[in-house]
Amino acid sequence: MGGMTRLEVTVEKVLVSSCLLGQAVRYDGGHNLMESELVQTWLEQGRIVAICPECAGGLPTPRPPAERVGQRILTAQGEDVTHAFSLGADLALKLAQQEGIKVAILKARSPSCGNKQIYDGHFAKQLIAGQGLTAEKLSAAGITVFNEFELSAAAAWVAELEQS
Which InterPro entries does the entry link to (predicted)? Predict the structure, then answer.
């Protein structure tokens, strides 16, 4: 009795910041649409799971700009919005875990999503090394976080995951 063997191909899903997909969820009501054939292909393949952690955490659009100051997130007016940012980060992590996601592409420099640099908390457009709250929580859970300027590295990582 000859049985057929099927080659199982894993199709990795990717968590992506909603603003990068053209959704008007930025603090100022705008978006940061990525014009990318790769992202378009992933969308068509149903790989992309979108989230805006700030909106998921209950913040409105538009909303006052906020920056990370240590473990807190503050608006330029000094309002502490850490709870909403933390809730959104927790929901993003939960969604990623439910979907079996191992890779995220998040908005660079965001107090939620920045993966390498964030603004320094003085609202003077000065960058420092650091992560946004969501990027930090995802990374701590073993999810590899890229930003929109690292699409080729993200694509290579996804391809490597699918080969293993």
Answer: 2-thiour_desulf
